[in-house]
Design a protein that fits this description.
There is one protein chain. By secondary structure, the chain is mainly alpha-helical. It folds into two domains: about 10-75, no CATH class; about 100-145, no CATH class. Helices cover about 40% and strands about 5% of the residues. It has six helices and two strands, in the order αββααααα. The chain has helices at about 10-25, 65-70, 75-85, 110-120, 125-130, 135-145, and strands spanning about 45, 60-65. Helix 5 packs across helix 6. The termini are far apart.
């Protein structure tokens, strides 16, 4: 069994072990967890709970990311995750729309003008964008009522 190099810090040694396993045995392509639902398609090497970080293949399992997270979830990590949660009420979140939005570059009058001018068909969206200081994509959203829907 290889001893961990003294010059490497602990975090870099952990990544060294995973790098070694990937180079020596390849990236895992299956999950060793018998309860795996098979939905996740990304696999990694997972250190067994009772083993030290070594470069020994027997100390690791092949697991999909989903199973790996569940396998690593200790009571301490679960409590910390619960502390990081926040509760959302059933109320709908209201966003600022139109001129009340702080980042808007247009007002309602300009939106109506853009739609009228484009409807006439004598101008490109890119040219309208240049005239009003917005991008062609923003003009497209205004014209197709993806943005500024509340303006008729």
């Amino acid at each position: 069994m290889k001893q961990k190099p003294k010059e490497l810090e602990w975090a870099s040694y952990k990544s060294h072990c995973h790098y070694y396993l990937n180079s020596k045995f390849g990236k895992p392509k299956t999950c060793d967890n018998p309860d795996c639902n098979g939905k996740c398609k990304t696999y990694d090497w997972c250190k067994k709970t009772d083993s030290e970080y070594t470069c020994n293949r027997d100390d690791y399992l092949r697991m999909c990311r989903s199973c790996h997270r569940k396998y690593d979830m200790t009571d301490e990590k679960l409590e910390q995750a619960k502390k990081n949660l926040y509760w959302v009420t059933g109320k709908k979140v209201k966003y600022a729309v139109g001129e009340r939005c702080p980042k808007t570059k247009l007002n309602a009058k300009q939106v109506v003008e853009i739609r009228k001018e484009y409807k006439l068909g004598n101008i490109f969206q890119k040219d309208l964008g240049a005239r009003y200081g917005i991008s062609q994509r923003a003009v497209c959203s205004v014209v197709n009522r993806l943005s500024w829907r509340h303006i008729k």
